[in-house]
């Protein structure tokens, strides 16, 4: 067998080329690069006073469902190209892995469902946010932070009146004269 590779025959050259090609193919297949998914992270809270921000009466919501959806608009219709969901942990935090690059697509993170018995209404302006799911945006890692997102209760607690009044007074005494 060694003589076949050391001779000057055309057959020996063909066998050598075949062997080198096979070794190259094995090396390339063995070193294929797996690209990690991008991870969308954020938090979900109960905006108990419907203040539009995390107030003293607010609290983080465990068990809330959050989704990430990407899509393209074609002929006036939205075509979903990626979808993933996650559930918030004990501190209202979520981390949802989304496979692939979605540079030219419109992607959003959105609230889907709250398991809280009284804080389960989607908040105005706090139920979704656009997210850029591409590594071409200068990301230092594979994590994209978004949110926070909020659900609201159907009934506002009575303590919220005093809390929001105090927040307005604090805002008025910030020294800007307004």
Descriptive report:
By secondary structure, the protein is of the alpha+beta class. Helix content is 22%, strand content 34%. The protein has 3 helices and 10 strands; from the N terminus they run ααββββββββββα. Strands 1, 2, 5, 7, 9 and 10 form a 6-stranded mixed β-sheet that branches. Strands 4-3-6-8 form a 4-stranded antiparallel β-sheet, with no helix packed on it. Strand 3 and strand 4 (77-87) form a beta hairpin. Residues 25-32 have low confidence and may be disordered.
Descriptors for this entry?
single chain; 178 residues; alpha+beta; Immunoglobulin-like; 2 domains; six-stranded mixed β-sheet; four-stranded antiparallel β-sheet; 3 helices
Q: How do the strands and helices of this protein lay out in sequence?
A:
Blueprint: H1 2-6, H2 10-30, E1 38-46, E2 59-60, E3 65-74, E4 77-87, E5 93-98, E6 106-113, E7 119-122, E8 128-130, E9 143-145, E10 149-153, H3 159-172
Parallel strand pairs: 1-9, 1-10
Antiparallel strand pairs: 1-2, 1-5, 3-4, 3-6, 6-8, 7-10
Order of helices and strands: HHEEEEEEEEEEH
- Unreliable stretches covering 5 or more consecutive residues: 25-32
Overall tally of domains: 2
Sketch the major β-sheet.
Answer: 6 strands, mixed
CATH class term of the largest domain: Mainly Beta
Cα(first) to Cα(last) distance is 92 Å
Number of strands: 10
- The CATH superfamily name of the largest domain is Carboxypeptidase-like, regulatory domain
* Tertiary shape: elongated
**Global structural class:** alpha+beta
Rg over CA atoms, rounded to whole Å, is 28 Å
Query: What's the pLDDT, averaged over the residues?
Result: 80
Strand content: 25-35%
Q: Level of helix content?
A: 10-25%
Number of helices: 3
What would you say the CATH architecture of the largest domain is? Sandwich
Q: What is the name of the CATH topology of the largest domain? A: Immunoglobulin-like
